[in-house]
Amino acid sequence: KASVVIPTLNGGELLLKVVDAVLAQQAPWPFELLIIDSGSTDGSLAQLQAKSLRIHSIPKSEFSHGGTRNLGVELTTGEYVAFLTQDALPADQSWLFNLVSILEHEPKAAGAFGRHLAYPEASPFVQRDLEGHFNNLAKYPLYLDKETDAERFSTGEAAWRQVLHFYSDNNSCLRRSVWQQIPYPVIEYGEDQVWADLIIKAGYKKAYAINAVVYHSHDYDVRETFERSQIEAKFFYRHFNYVLLAGQTAYGKTLQALNQQDRRYAELHGVSEEDLQAQLALNAARLKGYLAVDFSA
After folding, report:
1. What is the pLDDT of residues 159-216, one digit of tens each?
2. Using 50, 70 and 90 to split pLDDT, how confident is the model at 293?
3. Facing residues of 54 across strands?
């Protein structure tokens, strides 16, 4: 009925917890688990092998976000194929059932993504932002397609396009029969959102499995935030023609607005000065990363 695929590389102790959580899933049908490892050296692979799990190893040079997930579909048999990243921990024993069920309920749904919760130790701002993002998605119908708002789709309104193509392979599930027609694009980054855009344009629906919940969050430092922002800016421009930030004037106004918002949030919620200052530095790093991209290239 269902397959679960987890690409791994040096996943450590958290990966072991993720695997145990998958094996503990409760569903009225059988499911399989496949781990695709691309050269782990941290000892996690040996610990997984001791559990007699199915592991497929590839050279690190052969890994790609879309290509490796396509390989995962090819190597499994489920009608539905769920994906987790090695740091996305199912929050309960119904995670897989909830992902698959929302696709079963709507035959035109090609794929579903689930909700993310921040880990308890995440910064207060990461917790706020994740909660706000997924709460906002819950304001829309759980199934979306190009006919949900045909006028906004036809005009290519950027805000609506962003809602339609948001999709996260940290916690997702696709219908194999649709994947056979529309496999993941083999690109450096963002295969999930480009795939969602493709299935929407092809007339399929995308589902938000609001009850398929994982813990998944990152507290990036300034350097990591800057680098990821560059990657995001290049990706969204290349694949969707979005410019995330246009020029120094926009930088100054956006940074001021973000910092005012975060200072207010810190005051209202008793956030420490240390956490606030860290967040203000990350705001600047993220926007500088957006500006650092040469769109003319």
Report:
1. 999 999 999 999 999 999 999 999 999 998 999 999 999 999 999 999 999 999 999 9
2. confident
3. 34
The residue to which tokens 């309960």 are assigned: 92
Range of the structural domain that residue 230 is part of? 222-291
Residues 134 and 276 in one domain: no
- Which one, of 84, 287, 66, lies nearest residue 182 by Cα? 66
Q: Which helix (H) or strand (E) holds 239?
A: helix 222-240
Distance from C-alpha of 240 to C-alpha of 158, rounded to nearest angstrom = 9
User: Per-residue pLDDT tens for 28-48?
Assistant: 999 999 999 999 999 998 999
Q: Is residue 147 part of a domain?
A: yes
Cα gap 73→169, rounded to integer Å: 13
Question: For residue 294, what pLDDT is reported?
Answer: 77
What does the alpha-carbon distance between residue 291 and residue 246 come to, in Å, rounded to a whole number? 7
Q: How many CB atoms lie within 10 A of CB 80?
A: 23
Q: Residue 60 has what DSSP assignment? A: G
In the chain the first and final C-alpha atoms are separated, in Å, by: 46
Examine residue 80 and state whether it is found in any structural domain, yes or no: yes
145 and 271 in a common domain: no
